Amino acid sequence: DGLRSCVNARSLHTVRQVPSELNDWPKACVVKSKCQDVYLNLAFEEWLARNLDLSDRRLLMLWVNTPSVVIGRCQSPWTESNLPFLRRRNIAIARRHSGGGTVYHDLGNLNITFMTSNHAYRRHENMLFLAETLCRSWPSLKVSLSPRDDLLLNDTFKISGSAARITHRAAYHHCTLLVEADVPTLHASLEPTLTGDGVQSTATASLRSTVSDLSSCANVDMDSVRHTLAESFLNKHDAHNVFCIDEISDSVFPGVEKIHFELKTWNWIFGKTPKFDWRYETELSGTPLLLNLTVHHGIVRKLVISSQRLTSHDEHLIETTLQGLCLRSNDWEDALLKLNVDSQNRLQPVSAILHSLVSNLD
Question: Is the pLDDT of residue 100 over 80?
Fold first, then answer.
């Protein structure tokens, strides 16, 4: 393993099989996931927090994903990500269990998770550890902490943000670290799908920041950063165990596939979205068409449509047809086909507008 040749401070024990008994895990160790699937890595992270006794253990998990956008538990994918762009570029959209803001992952971004008991959770200490390790290892880097404990490059550019999940028995604090990231794709991915004053939401909103990556100021790459952080963590805790995880499945971690399945579902990614109101204006045959929706947990709880081109009966028919549906194209497509049949295609023009609208929302 690359860690063995990189680390000179102590003799590392690098293995590809974790202890079969959870109680046999060492008191401090590094876990390096070889998986690059965002849903599997998030599931594994959650599995560790649920199953490993962290009352007197410290664990550092290092993981990298293929391009993906990860929103916080209490956020909205519709206001935090550019869903049409993600679909065109085959970029995954995921919701994690922790709170906080939305982040972009790719093969140039290192994800870092600190796992401890809930009593040992120390966000500031963790971020300070990262800043000091980076500055000590690459003197050309000037990395500092913001008042919110984000990592800043040259006191200006954000290179890391973090979030945490704390339960009654465990805590994990995870953060991104932009090493060699595709910054233009990051910006494009995090443009909101629904924008403007027409959206009123109770969801947590991300704070937009000016970002950069480590490679803009130093000769660094993913492997060197990953190895350096592992070395520094193990030295700090007088430990030597590094577990390389090649497979994340029930055969190795019983129950992880159930978590993985849930994280990939529409009901989790979109259906956990807090309530929001959306006002949309367009034209129908040259006259204004106004649509007001209230969406909660991904379901259209209330819909009001109005246009001079529609009779009150037509408006009522459209509203009753769409209320109660999930805000996703497949559901609306079936309902709009039925609407066309019921209206003998009289409402086909407005149906086409609504179909085009919702097709950009999942």
Answer: yes
Q: What angle do CA 151, 157, 159 make, to 5 degrees?
A: 45
Spatial neighbors of 286 by CB under 8 A, at least 6 apart, are none
- pLDDT number for residue 1: 35
Residues in the chain: 362
Q: What's the CA gap between 273 and 193, in Å, rounded?
A: 14
What's the pLDDT at 13? 58
Q: What's the pLDDT at 15?
A: 62
270-273's contacts with Cβ under 8 Å and 24+ in sequence apart are: 270/77, 270/298, 270/326, 270/327, 270/328, 270/362, 271/297, 271/298, 271/299, 271/326, 272/73, 272/95, 272/297, 272/298, 273/75, 273/76, 273/77, 273/78, 273/203, 273/297, 273/298
What does the alpha-carbon distance between residue 344 and residue 313 come to, in Å, rounded to a whole number?
14
Token pair recorded at residue 162: 């973090």
CB 28 within 8 Å of CB 234:
yes
CA dist., res. 230 & res. 203, Å (int): 35
Q: Where does residue 90 fall: left (phi above 0), alpha (psi -120 to 50 degrees), or beta otherwise?
A: left
Q: What is the pLDDT of residues 325-352, one digit of tens each?
A: 999 999 999 999 999 998 999 999 999 9
Q: List the beta bridge partners of residue 274.
A: none
Q: What pLDDT digit, counting tens, does each position of 290-324 carry?
A: 999 999 999 999 999 999 999 999 999 999 999 99
For residue 102, the one-letter residue type is: T
